[in-house]
Amino acid sequence: MTGPEETKPPVRQANKRGAARLAAVQALYQMDVAGSGLLEITAEYEAFRLGKEVDGALYREADAQWFRAILAGVVEKQKTLDPIVRQALTEDWPLSRLDSTLRAILRAGTFELMMRADVPVAVIVSEYVDIAKAFYEEDEPKLVNAVLDRISRRVRGEGRGKGKEAS
What we know:
Protein name: Transcription antitermination protein NusB
Pfam families: NusB (PF01029)
Order of helices and strands: HHEEHHHH
Strand content: under 5%
Organism: Aquamicrobium ahrensii
Strand order of the largest sheet: 1-2
Low-confidence stretches: 1-13, 162-167
Structural class: mainly alpha
Helix content: 55-70%
Function: Involved in transcription antitermination. Required for transcription of ribosomal RNA (rRNA) genes. Binds specifically to the boxA antiterminator sequence of the ribosomal RNA (rrn) operons.
Family: Belongs to the NusB family.
Number of helices: 6
Distance between the termini: 35 Å
Shape: globular
Radius of gyration: 16 Å
Oligomer: single chain
């Protein structure tokens, strides 16, 4: 076991924007896997998931406007987002090789880095790393951190990582 200073709860208490980010990633995943449309998935989440109980699990109250903005923005700008994510990945890990959840996390994080200059890079990267930790226990959260850090350096000229950027 590691000491308490080295471990965190798997998912920290999310604020309303954090809950909206998680819901947006889940919705993007569902759209990718099930082929659901934007309006259909937005209506489903707002009516049945955000702040509601689903199968015995209570979804945290989320900022519905933030949720809609991320979801609609990722769908609208996907042709711009994907090449940016692809450039930040290593050559042996093309975007198509990532599973749907990782693609959703990286697309949503990239969208916020590009379109939400009012939100600090550290907040965006940290929130999406936390989302990755909710779904993965291995190297995926580190991948999300590294990729979003590279993207933040390119699109905002700033990153939160230490050391020099791997190109």
